[in-house]
Amino acid sequence: MSNNHLALNLNKTKLVIFAPQMSTPLQKENVTIQSLNGTAIDIVPSTKLLGVIIDENFTFDLHIQSNVKKTHQKFGTLYRHKHLLCASARLSLTSSFLLPSLLYCVPLLTNIQSSIKSKLDSCYNKIAKFVTNASYLSHHCLSLRNLNGLNSPTILPLSN
Fold first, then answer.
1. Distances 148 to 46, 96, 127, 142 between C-alpha atoms, Å
2. Torsional class of 105: left (φ above 0), alpha (ψ -120 to 50), beta (otherwise)
3. Taking a C-beta distance cutoff of 8 angstroms, is the pair 130, 78 a contact?
4. Which residues pair with 43 in a beta bridge?
5. Which of 35, 69, 109, 151 is most buried by a 10 A CB count?
6. How far apart are alpha carbons 106 and 17 in whole angstroms?
């Protein structure tokens, strides 16, 4: 790397050991990786790469949970100011700030656990009710029917 005048930041360097889920778990306590200058490289169960959290089993559950959490936080801010927003503003803000978080890396949603899928669906249903100004107690299907342009992120990767 010195030929290209690049320096490796060993403080930010992490190692993820990828192994099939069915294989015997590695004893990570016994594994030590040293860099060229003798600094130990940390072994971690997951890391963030270009905005995607990758774990050792390639399940992407942590990534989806993180995105749902971020979307809920943004949604809470918009929801507190719901009374100040007209319908077109709610739709525009939702399309600009909330849906990109949910739709980022949509292809990863095909093999998610049902518990994570239900959290994602719940988040999307709350957003649909927010956009349509539906009551919190109303059924989400009525709100989803009124949203012609917004598709559920869990449905998108399943459609061919």
1. 37, 16, 14, 12
2. left
3. yes
4. 15
5. 109
6. 24
